Amino acid sequence: MARSKDEIEQELAFRVGFPLEKVSEVLNCLASLAYEEAQEGFSVRGFGEFRLVEAQGRKGINPFTGKSVFLKALPDIQFTPDFNALQRFRGRRRKPTAFSSTTEEPRPLPEVSLIADSEDWKVATGGVGGVTNSKLGRAAEWIQADETPICCGEPSQFC
Hints:
This protein has 159 residues and is an alpha+beta fold. It has four helices and seven strands; from the N terminus they run ααβββββααββ. It has a three-stranded antiparallel sheet with strand order 1-2-5. Strands 3-4 form a two-stranded antiparallel ribbon.
């Protein structure tokens, strides 16, 4: 479904939470930047690249005189979709989205605790008390004291 510029602005303002005037200003700035840089190629990662292409001229016939004339071609704009966007449109790769539709509110992330509590132990042991391979709550035995390497019976110092 084709959308008007106003519809796109309203959708972006809703999703991002910015005022409609700011979203409109950003889109206008993006469009003018694309027009200015189309000669060298204007690309937006994840979307695609706009490029100005010189087309071939063609022969034509003057309808009044019947003479053959050469018609110069006007420059054309070519759009090449980004590889990831192309794969996504083809249904081969799907990136996770924050929420499935525009009307659904994003779900809050679960809280993460770095300190083990009794609920963590229940989850780690499968609800049964017992020995686990978890290092939660134990001393950090994998941390070693400062060591000096010894080579040929002599301590080695590195600068």
